[in-house]
Amino acid sequence: MELCSFLTLDSFITDPLTHDFMRKALLMSSLVASVCGFLSSYLTLKGWALMGDAVSHSVMPGVVVAYALGLPFSLGAFIFGVGSVALIGFIKQKSRVKEDTVIGLVFTGFFALGIVLVSKIKSNIDLHSILFGSPLGISLSDVKQTIFISVLVVILLSIFRKDLMLYCFDPRHAKTVGINVFFLHYLLLTCLSLAAVVGLQSVGIILVVAMLITPGATAYLLTDKFDNMTVISILSAIISSLIGIYVSFWFDLETGGSIVLAQTFIFLFAFLFAPRYGIFKLKKLFAAYK
Amino acid sequence: METINYQNFRIDAENICVDYNGKVALYDANLRLKPGQICGLVGMNGAGKTTFFNALTGFVNISKGKIRINGESVRSAQKDQTIAYVPQNEGIDSQFPISVWDVVMMGRYGSMNIFRCPRESDVQAVKDAIERVDLTDHLSTPIGNLSGGQRKRTFLARAIAQRASILLLDEPFSGVDIRTEKLISELFIQFKNEGKTILLSTHDMIHVREFCDLVLLINKTVVAYGETSEVFTPENITTTFGGISPDFLFGPES
């Protein structure tokens, strides 16, 4: 890239748009970001960060097997994602080992199985793109799957938005007034698996958990209203994806890593300067000046 | 022998047992409460108070025994919003980004459509409930910015908005200010007159004497149950608390 070409902001933004793969990457990543950002507010409030990490790593063997068998990779990923959660629940119930330990050992086990499978099944699986994402090289069939899954998750979350909030906030009350808590639990897990599946295309398996928790954490620092939190979470996820892709395009950096770094910087900014909950409590400072 | 008409009882728990993965939390517990009765649930930490509540609301399954709520199953009580549970302050995430209004509105969720869109009647019920607990000035306040007493009142309002005929209150008086305590005790009298039945757990012996018609002393099972004046004796309390003398329990702090 010639340095002069992005001296003007205009060309910094418009030049990449002349490439077909960039337009596709920007659109797909924004879609993925909306899904993950939406779900993120629920996961952070429910305290499911580790669960998100577990599910996203556990989909690895599913992806590999699906590729090898020529099935949609989302199907394999979904089966292994939900399977890992079931296995975690089973081991936790049947042994005295603590939950975080069980989560850790199950997901690393699944992840290792995935890596071994990749080395054994000599196919055209690109390990690098699974691990680190490849939003710039996304194929047409992947695009279709991603759109389908994203729309599905957004519809599910929209319908059960309030019930899921109640489930995260006070499951006991939900149960007491006859709301199906069991269903909501598995709905949230299903959405988590599906979001991990679409998210891994943007940033890869290793970093997808960031897509699932960082936007929610950022939003949590910025508002006291749940609806606002969801909106902020989605926006910050989309903005970081756009920033990440642009930066990786101009400076020739790993795209997934750039997206997650952008999210981390936005979080740090909120951590320092959030009006009420930031380190510097700007609201108080402004009030003092008046 | 006269036949028992189960419709007469708001709560009728018969020989209920609850165990968590083989660990017994509660066994052979019985409780019968009629409309308008207030019953205190007294026991040590881990004696099964919360488990008892959970069994009545259906949050945990009982492994033995039978529970009837207004003569029907727990499941139909859930469908009819019959029971309201007011959690103790420690039992909720006070940093959850949610306002007083939204918490109280949750009391109406069970009777709303699947999207939980409030109808006119729901809005009115929430308004009335918030007014009864004197929080009208705090409608849009996040619960994180409330005092312990105000937060307790918010959850009471949720129970009122739910129009439940049975209220289960977990430590309603712990960590609240004098004003809230007075308001709660006034509400109790109103609830009683409305025919609601109240089961409350408490550590404070004075509150038991003050508010409760009946008392249920438990330690994994029922130690004693009956009219407060008859059952709430130093001997029974000592047994309930595993041999610690009431002098200690009634010490200067309580």
Give an overview in words.
- The complex is a heterodimer of chains A (290) and B (254).
- Chain A has helices spanning 9-17, 20-46, 49-69, 73-94, 99-120, 127-132, 140-159, 161-169, 171-176, 181-203, 208-222, 226-251, 255-273, 282-289.
- Chain A is mostly helical and 290 residues long.
- Chain A has a single domain (3-289), classed as ABC transporter involved in vitamin B12 uptake, BtuC (Orthogonal Bundle).
- In chain A, helix 3 runs parallel beside helix 5.
- Chain B has two domains: 1-82 and 165-254, Rossmann fold; 93-163, no CATH class.
- Chain B is an alpha/beta fold.
- Chain B contains ten helices and nine strands.
- In chain B, helix 4 packs across helix 5 (148-161) and helix 5 (148-161) runs parallel beside helix 6 (178-193).
- In chain B, strand 8 and strand 9 form a beta hairpin.
- Helices cover 34% and strands 22% of the residues of chain B.
- Chain B has a six-stranded mixed beta sheet, sandwiched between helices. A three-stranded antiparallel beta sheet of chain B has the order 2-1-4.
- Classes of the chains: A mainly alpha (290), B alpha/beta (254).
- Chains A and B meet through helix 8, helix 9 and helix 12 of A and helix 2 and strand 5 of B.
Relevant terms:
heterodimer; A: 290 residues; mainly alpha; ABC transporter involved in vitamin B12 uptake, BtuC; 0% strand; globular; B: 254 residues; alpha/beta; Rossmann fold; 2 domains; six-stranded mixed beta sheet; three-stranded antiparallel beta sheet; 10 helices
Question: In short, what is this structure?
Answer:
The complex is a heterodimer of chains A (290) and B (254). Chain A is an all-alpha fold. Chain A has one domain: ABC transporter involved in vitamin B12 uptake, BtuC, CATH 1.10.3470.
CATH class of the largest domain in chain B: Alpha Beta
Number of domains in the coordinates of chain B?
Answer: 2
Strand content of chain A: under 5%
Instruction: Give the strand line-up of the largest sheet of chain B.
Output: 5-6-7-3-8-9
Q: Residue-averaged pLDDT of chain B, rounded?
A: 90
Strand content of chain B: 15-25%
Q: What is the CATH topology classification name of chain A?
A: ABC transporter involved in vitamin B12 uptake, BtuC
Share of residues in helices of chain A: over 70%
How many strands of chain B?
9
Helix content of chain B: 25-40%
- What is the gyration radius of chain A calculated from CA atoms? 20 Å
- Give, in order, the helices and strands of chain B: EEEHEHEHHHEHEHEEHHH
CATH class of chain A: Mainly Alpha
Please tell me what the overall shape of chain A is.
globular
Task: State the low-pLDDT regions of chain B, or none.
Answer: none
Describe the global form of chain B.
globular
Q: Structural class of the secondary structure composition of chain B?
A: alpha/beta
Number of helices of chain B: 10
